[in-house]
Design goal:
about 150 residues; 6-stranded antiparallel β-sheet; TATA-Binding Protein; single chain
Length: about 150
Amino acid sequence: MPKFNVFVTFEAPFSKVVQRDYHIVGGDLAGYLAENLKQRGFVVKSAQNIEYAFEIKCLSGQIEYGMTIGLDTVYNKRWEVAVQPRYNFLDKLFGKNEDKELSDLLNTVDAILHSDQAISDIKWYKSYNDPDSLKHKPYFEGPVVKLDRKY
């Protein structure tokens, strides 16, 4: 049973200047991620400005995921990508499972980030938090942690 880290922060040379018609930064990063996801076999349904960030909607297997992309709102220093799992505890209790689909998407995002030498200091977290809170939280080097449990 894997444990997922669904929030990643990193340093990258994408433009931190508001681009015309967007009113926020991150459009070039969203485009970069969307294109790389397509090249790796994912169906990208949309990549759009959602006022406070950019969002990519894509399919992993038959499950659609939303991925929010933006710059940290406190220091405007680190890029942030958050993937929202589709199933909550109750869904899982009633048999729904997204382990493969979520794992595939998160591992692909991680591979995209690590394949670009201009992207550095990649840190994965269990969930979104503001930059000040993250200073005190443990981070992981990857998005999926395998738990070996014996029942």
